[in-house]
Amino acid sequence: MLDNYTSSLTSAHKKFLEKLFPGGVAFDPEVLRVYASDASLKVGTVLAVVRPENSDQVCEFMRWAETENIAVHTRGRGTSLSGGCVPTIPGIVISMLGMDKILNISRDDFVAEVEPGVSTAQLQEECEKLGMLYPPDPASAKATSVGGNVATCAGGLRAVKYGVTRDYVIGVEAVLPGGKLLRFGGRTHKDVIGLDIGRLFVGSEGTLGVITKLTLKLIPKPEASASVLVGYASLDAALASMGKVFAAGILPCAVEFMNETVLEILTKTSEVPWPDTVKSLLLFQVDGSNDTVPFENARLSHQLHDALWRMEGVGKDEEDKIWAYRRRVSAASYVLGPDRIGGDMAVPRGSILSAVRRFEKIAASNGKRLVAFGHAGDGNIHANLHYDASDPDDARRTEKTHHELDAAALEFGGSLSGEHGAGYLKDVSKQLGKDEHALMRGIRRVFDPKGILNPGKGY
Amino acid sequence: MLDNYTSSLTSAHKKFLEKLFPGGVAFDPEVLRVYASDASLKVGTVLAVVRPENSDQVCEFMRWAETENIAVHTRGRGTSLSGGCVPTIPGIVISMLGMDKILNISRDDFVAEVEPGVSTAQLQEECEKLGMLYPPDPASAKATSVGGNVATCAGGLRAVKYGVTRDYVIGVEAVLPGGKLLRFGGRTHKDVIGLDIGRLFVGSEGTLGVITKLTLKLIPKPEASASVLVGYASLDAALASMGKVFAAGILPCAVEFMNETVLEILTKTSEVPWPDTVKSLLLFQVDGSNDTVPFENARLSHQLHDALWRMEGVGKDEEDKIWAYRRRVSAASYVLGPDRIGGDMAVPRGSILSAVRRFEKIAASNGKRLVAFGHAGDGNIHANLHYDASDPDDARRTEKTHHELDAAALEFGGSLSGEHGAGYLKDVSKQLGKDEHALMRGIRRVFDPKGILNPGKGY
């Protein structure tokens, strides 16, 4: 691993980049500022931004970057909440948004081949036009690229039934430091020859190579869906109901929860349809055929008979109205403070209630409120803390709470991150054993001996 | 990597093993003979068999084996069809069948923790008693261990809807050469901290470590299922029907196909219920709730209106009668010859028909018949060749055909193996690029610098 990365570009460096990326390179500080940060709002130092349009350019760039000891930070749409795209070690940002094509979508193979910069929502849409579904559905699908989803193994709303990004990546083409382009997997849904390196790229946070092409598995698009928002007197009652749904053999495609603080915020910031007795919400979606969805919906409703209130919707338009309450949570939470530290811990599913209650207590002991919602079916808790960064005491207490929440998640046998990744913000050594961590770093060195890829990020 | 492995055990070696595994070690050639082979019928050389009962013994053994330069071949139930368990380099077989406990199955977490030696069928059964499903369902579930399934990323009958073994492994505990016990993942359904090493173990064919514990994701058990066996005049007509099913948005949990040769064999070896006009079969299964399965079944039947003949069954007893025809294929195929070379190539789903036709031509050009059946929904073709090993010309032509089939599978963008693994029999260099292969071996060295784990196998 390098001790010293090149910390400024010579004019020879700049000439090389200008020649390799005609019209696709920037050194202007105004432009670089955009690429110095991501949705985490942490800021790093960018020496240049390059925007390849084909894999040949990526190969040549990676050959050069390794020789020149230059750190390379691969970037999609920069929506990382954990600082995964921030050049904390000064380097060149390689924006993959110039490689954003859908290369093909096959109704025969149920496979899509895409460049990494393609918008997740666009891919979903194109697949659906052809009667197919690309199931990974991060809440941020409209804002993210598939390459970014792969780098973080993005989860999302349908994960409880359909799994996460990892489960749909069957082929990866990537360029390694030194400039070699490697291909793993392909268009077959199954392949057990050799180690499954393609999937190792999923969730690797830009540390193994620059992905230049992805082959994704698709499934038939379900004909119909229905959603139900159900209200309970407490999160305890809500999660008890959820347990009954799974015990009855129902596998919804989405199960979201919102704690009491979320309902307070929603009530405070807008008109809400539920009565005052409702303090916690669950949101379910089921899918299937036009014939079966009404039955699935009825079976689900039967298990939710304890609910104090419910709002049902069948089909996109009606469901969108219901989901709007869930979508409003993040923005509405800013009434608690203009700044935010977000958590996305995962715990074993049966521990969600205890974990949220524990998190709330920790927050309260620091004079903070906990906004807790997320993917209950996966045990994935968005535990957000709002504060005012201009108030040093608030900032300190919030930071302290955040670290205590992470520690508590681990006590439940959980993970510091269910979908955002470690990025720059998570101290993975709290979760990973020393030997396990060393092994991961050993593997990283096989791909990237000098450590030029997204250094300081991941693990 | 070692050039020379210890090729015989000294009395000090034997004493060490007897002390570490009281009552759990064998040197008797009669016993060792059993462990020298697997379902591939290839034979290797076993220096000793050990049977640990806990992970402490595995740690101590692996510390010692690395120091003593002894090759270690991990073994479950020895059902590998590709020689994955055969000690082609003489070494010690570590049988994991002494660690076969189900440690816990949680209805709250939808997680099972098991030791690797547990029988797949037993785990499935115990989960189902609790209303949960462990979806991976290799056709050989009754004969296999979960650890063996993980080593090969076993697929099976339900993969088209539920995925393969990889998709259900969320935690792996394994002992590496040198004796360190490492833990990756755990009981959370989602975890994106660090590289996904747990899943790298899936399909690693015993080359990365000795797995001592597995944490598996479960799903709610569907209430009901239905199967339909449908007959067509040709495989062409059958697969055209399958295409319509997927295009209609139906995701069956199983889609099996059988080519014309299979039907000839079934007709020759037993009474069959279909008319003579039927030359190819598809077998579908759908699952869901008691209410929805009849609708799914009707929707499926509607897409299969082209079929010449059909046999439907709802519920286990009726379905078992239907599936019996599929299960009979392997055994019945021996009418074509007492010896077998099995193939389990995967191709992109849309290429199954062309691939099977190509395989048949290759077989015919060598004077052979091709038995082709398998998991059509995954593009996974069991392409079996039967012959008489006592006839050298037949054996030679069969071997030649087998290699030509492998080459043809790759021309379709396929894989040499969809579920059996490379083991000892597959020449992975035909499929893997040189750089990709070198990278995999580099990763292997991170886990196992001396190369004592299942040397000569995998990749």
UniProtKB/TrEMBL annotation, chains A, B:
Gene Ontology terms, MF aspect: (S)-2-hydroxy-acid oxidase activity; D-lactate dehydrogenase (cytochrome) activity; FAD binding
UniProt keyword terms in alphabetical order: FAD, Flavoprotein, Oxidoreductase
Keyword RNA-binding included in the entry's annotation: no
Entry cofactors: FAD
InterPro entries named among the record's database cross-references: FAD-bd_oxidored_4_C, FAD-bd_PCMH, FAD-bd_PCMH-like_sf, FAD-bd_PCMH_sub2, FAD-linked_Oxase-like_C, FAD-linked_OxidoTrans_Type4, Oxid_FAD_bind_N, Vanillyl_alc_oxidase_C-sub2
Location of the FAD-binding PCMH-type domain: 42-221
EC number: 1.1.2.4, 1.1.3.15
PANTHER family per the UniProt record, alphabetical: GLYCOLATE OXIDASE SUBUNIT GLCD (PTHR42934)
Name this polypeptide is given: D-lactate dehydrogenase (Cytochrome)/glycolate oxidase
Organism: Desulfovibrio intestinalis
